[in-house]
Every structure is written in structure tokens, then in C-alpha cells.
# Entry
Amino acid sequence: MQTNRAPTTPCFFLRSLLALGQGCGLLACSPVEPDAQPDASLMPASTRRAELSAGWALYTIDVGAHSARISGGQPGNPIQWFTRVLGRDFQFRMNPSARYVLTRPTQPEDQLDWNKLPGFSDCGTLDLSQDGAMFGWRWRVDTTPTVLEITAYANNRGKHLTPTAPLFTLDEADLASDAPLRYRVFIEGAQYRFTVQGTVRGRTIHAATTLPRACPSSAPTALKWASGLYFGGTSTAPSKITGAISEVDFRP
# Structure
């Protein structure tokens, strides 16, 4: 099965936008809502306090959506829309809302499709489904115990690349702990480098890998599309999914 057919960038809109020389439109982008409070319906009280005190932004994927809207945060946290960064460096907190179950998938095996954490396009395109790097995540209902898998994910001229095994997993108790992990994905010559570090319920997570880049001769500072939290694959979110992010400027 070939998964993740849905693009992570509104490329049809971007092509028109670039042709017209206009700014980003509200119909195609997930805007920051500076006056909105984070949607905390799935967060414990301690998390809500942390959102406000630590400058965390909140991604929210609504039922039936692919892309997340953003509340909270501040300029550059998180990075979004157009950028020329070499990579992204952020803390991300998954929570129990990531335990989704597709009861009416678009295709039979969509539960196994990789969803995406924030990343970037590459190789002179703004379409992440063609070239770019990000982390993937999915909830496995077919394992005992059920777990959230996190992996490195890249698109190479439209071909989806992942390592042979996930970088690590989080179980239900891990998600309930709401612990942040630091994610770094960046361009290094002819490859993308991925690292994740942190501690979840006393367990140290330190994972790293690389995936090939399709355009080693392309300038790493070329214009890119900075993506956010995304559901799919081909199916849309069957339930509301949230994730908190705190991003800093990438430094090699």
C-alpha cells in the first residue's frame, strides 16, 4: 500500500499565489489567532497553565480536517508559511487526543498512514508532498499495547521515505504525562538529519537518523514552506487532535 497521498501543502493555491505575487490567503493557510485562547478541551489544568506561562502555541486539528489551526504562540513560534531556514528546532507535546481511530477510512489501511509533525519543503518547491522533511506519527490499534509511533519522514521527488523501524513509541501513559520532547530536523548536505531527545516518565529518549535529500546541489536556504501539525494520509481526522509546540530559531 502506498500511504500519505494527500499533500501537506496547499500547492494549488501557492502556485496561483506566486503567479499573482500576492500574500498568503486565509483560505489556504492556517492563521495565527493572536486574540484566541488555546483550545484546551483535551488538556489538563497544569498544561493550560504551562501554555500561558511558557509561550507554548497550540495546534488543533478539527474533526474532518487535515491541517491544524494555531492559537497562542508568538511571531516565529511556531514558524509557518514561507521561510528560508535550514531546519526546525522545537519542543512538542503529544497528549491523549493522539489516540485516534478511523472508523470510516477513505482507504482500508488508512489507520497505518503517517500523519506529520512540523517540517519544511525543499529543493525549490513549496509542495511537501514532492520534496521535504518532517517527522511522522501514527496511532497503532493493531499492537499490544496500543502505541503512538514516531518516525523520520521525507519526500524525495514524490517518493515517501521512512526508516525501516520507528524512532520510538509512546504508550497511553506516556501521552497522559504530557511530557515535551525536543525535535530537530535539518538539511545537512545530501541528507536530512533527524534527532529527538527528552525524558518521558523517567525514560530517556534519544533517537537519531538520516534520510537522503533529492537535491544535494540545491541551496539549503532556498524558499520553503513551513508546515504545521497535519493529519493524513488520505483520511481526515476522526476526532479533535491537539499538540503543543514551542519553537526556537534553528542553530546547526
